[in-house]
């Protein structure tokens, strides 16, 4: 359960007086997520999410994240919205952390997504890429190729505790990706973490996207590769090409990928697998026992990375030629 920072009812009730959000009826910590502390609030005006921003969120990035949610919603994307305070600010402070009140999005995330859901996700990702155009603020992707080596350096000494031989394998992988990483692909605002737990459905209908706290400016096709990793592998580690085909098809219905993007997809997928392997590895080694968070398995992403090394073209992900 991701509640890193505790709040008291008195502090929360006082915090709520900064908003036109009614008075507190009940609240509880949310037993999901690994990054920030989230609480579900019921007030006399309905349900809200309270988010306290934790270690991986740099407070100076919060105007980008919160402003982006407004920009995307204004262009028709279904996503939660940060509430404005009475003083006009989107951000407040609670228990010593930056904190925001967010509208509650109906729906639930899918534990076992099928190919039809992957198509919906592909389409929604492309819609987000299109809707992000014109957003005035920018944010570099701190977890792209330049960020991986410093992150690896924090875990490298203990990496063999997770699997023997990792030191050499990751050092080689980093060197390869750093020298081959594409620099000129189409780019704009990307989500960068569109995993199943960040996509809500009502029945089979996608109801919205949440968790924009890794959003940044980067290449669109990298975001597609994040989704291939997060949506198209089965629990046993095998790649499901039917899901890959559906995801790419859904994406291309809104924003066709060009030849250079398709050619780079296997390399981008290696990179995005490495990115999630590295953050998970760091958390695996550093999270103290007893913390209220379910740690995610870094080896799941190492296996995906190894799979992508063997992939020669986007056809192997299910791309159908138009
Ligand atoms: N606006 C919202 N409406 C409804 N539920 C929400 C909303 N925002 C968050 N939640 C709930 O809180 C959970 C955790 O939220 P979120 O994914 O933003 O946390 P996180 O710690 O940033 O997670 P992650 O590990 O995906 O980065 C979600 O799975 C969902 O159940
Ligand atoms: N979606 C990420 C957690 C948030 O960074 C993962 O599964 O590792």
Task: Please report which band the strand proportion falls in: under 5%, 5-15%, 15-25%, 25-35%, 35-45% or over 45%.
Answer: 5-15%
What count of domains describes the coordinates?
2
Order of helices and strands: HEEEHEEHHHEEEEHHHH
CATH architecture descriptor of the largest domain:
Alpha-Beta Complex
The bound ligands are: adenosine-5'-triphosphate, L-homoserine
CATH fold label of the largest domain? Aminoglycoside 3'-phosphotransferase, Chain: A, domain 2
Structural category: alpha+beta
| CATH class descriptor of the largest domain | Alpha Beta
Radius of gyration: 20 Å
Strand order of the largest sheet: 1-2-3-5-4
Low-confidence spans: none
Give the overall form: globular
- Say which CATH homologous superfamily of the largest domain is assigned: Aminoglycoside phosphotransferase (APH), C-terminal lobe
Number of DSSP strand runs: 9
**Gap from first CA to last CA:** 44 Å
Give the biggest beta sheet. 5 strands, antiparallel
**What is the average per-residue confidence, as pLDDT, rounded to a whole number?**
94
Query: What is the count of helical runs?
Result: 9
How is this structure best described in words?
Residues 27-257 form the Aminoglycoside phosphotransferase domain. Keywords: Amino-acid biosynthesis, ATP-binding, Kinase, Nucleotide-binding, Threonine biosynthesis, Transferase. It catalyses: L-homoserine + ATP = O-phospho-L-homoserine + ADP + H(+). Its EC number is 2.7.1.39. The protein is of the alpha+beta class and 322 residues long. The chain has two domains: 9-103, Phosphorylase Kinase, domain 1 (2-Layer Sandwich); 115-317, Aminoglycoside 3'-phosphotransferase, Chain: A, domain 2. Helices cover 41% and strands 15% of the residues. It is built from nine helices and nine strands. The chain has helices spanning 9-16, 62-74, 115-131, 145-155, 166-180, 220-231, 241-254, 259-286, 298-310; strands at residues 24-29, 37-43, 46-52, 92-94, 97-103, 187-190, 199-202, 205-209, 216-219. It has a five-stranded antiparallel β-sheet with strand order 1-2-3-5-4, with helices on one face. A two-stranded antiparallel ribbon has the order 6-9. A two-stranded antiparallel sheet has the order 7-8. Strand 4 (92-94) and strand 5 form a beta hairpin. Helix 3 runs parallel beside helix 7, helix 4 (145-155) packs antiparallel against helix 5 and helix 6 packs across helix 8. The longest helix has 28 residues, at 259-286. The termini are far apart.
